[in-house]
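Q: Given only this backbone (130 positions), what sequence would you predict?
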């Protein structure tokens, strides 16, 4: 049950990011254009946040999504580092690293027994008979 609770709490963060981007895209668009990326990227990022949050909670491929989200957190830290004159941006950057760490633990341990869809990319190995 702790695994599910942790997954839900992490997913809430990404759902909040989705709604923030949809309701007030100008902040993220400003960050994107500030580092020479197109402002329209806010929309695929918002969709990615939504899909990833739902996948963390319900599956499938929770481990894979955890790895992708860990990479996402580390990459997006770059945006906050560009604004390091603002101490809040540095705090957000470190928070992203911490979330990435939690996601890496989730990727290593798996979703536990509370997941809606179990889809295997490869079959389980059979244990050798002794």
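A: Predicted residues:
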């Amino acid at each position: 049950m702790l695994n599910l609770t942790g997954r839900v709490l992490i997913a809430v963060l990404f759902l909040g990011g989705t709604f923030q981007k949809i309701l007030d895209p100008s902040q993220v668009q400003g960050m994107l254009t500030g580092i020479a990326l197109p402002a329209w990227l806010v929309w695929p990022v918002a969709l990615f946040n939504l899909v990833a949050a739902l996948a963390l909670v319900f599956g499938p491929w929770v481990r894979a999504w955890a790895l992708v989200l860990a990479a996402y957190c580390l990459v997006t830290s770059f945006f906050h580092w560009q604004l390091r004159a603002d101490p809040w941006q540095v705090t957000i950057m470190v928070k992203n690293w911490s979330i990435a760490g939690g996601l890496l633990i989730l990727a290593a341990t798996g979703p536990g027994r509370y997941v809606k869809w179990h889809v295997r990319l490869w079959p389980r190995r059979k244990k050798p008979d002794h």
